[in-house]
Amino acid sequence: MTEVETFESAGEVAEKTYPIRAGEVKKGMIVMLKGFPCKVIEVTTSKTGKHGHAKANITGLDIFTGAKKVDISPTSHNMTAPFVTVSSYTLLDVSEDGFCSLMDEAGETREDLKCPDSNSPDSELGDKIRAALEAGKDVSVTVTKAMDSEVITDYKEQDAA
Question: Which CATH number fits the domain 14-82, given the four candidates 2.60.40.2550, 2.40.30.200, 2.30.30.30, 3.90.180.10?
């Protein structure tokens, strides 16, 4: 009987991230801090200590909640950075329960994303989106996706033709 090789999965996170050396992390990048995708707002490095590693002190804001996260890693060690995609959709409507009707370039619609509300990092964003829609403007929203989470992070408005 032949033996069948089995491979243990590296976890759900493996295909959603890529490695990056802590010493290569720069301000403005998106990396995983304490298990959350965060936009880096500050990076400081310390001098080489008695154990031979310079440390990178990385501060970032969670891209979905706005919560501040701080992580420290030797500059020579690998961290992970999430694959982030940004898509643009035309906003058709916002339902009473807060879900947005969105249409992509191909004409496909989706209604599974909530309009930002008072619990969102930018609590005014949802109010601005609703106001622009009620004013009869054409509204397009930016949807950011990372680590199986998707949120509306920005919007643009044009006067209706």
Answer: 2.30.30.30
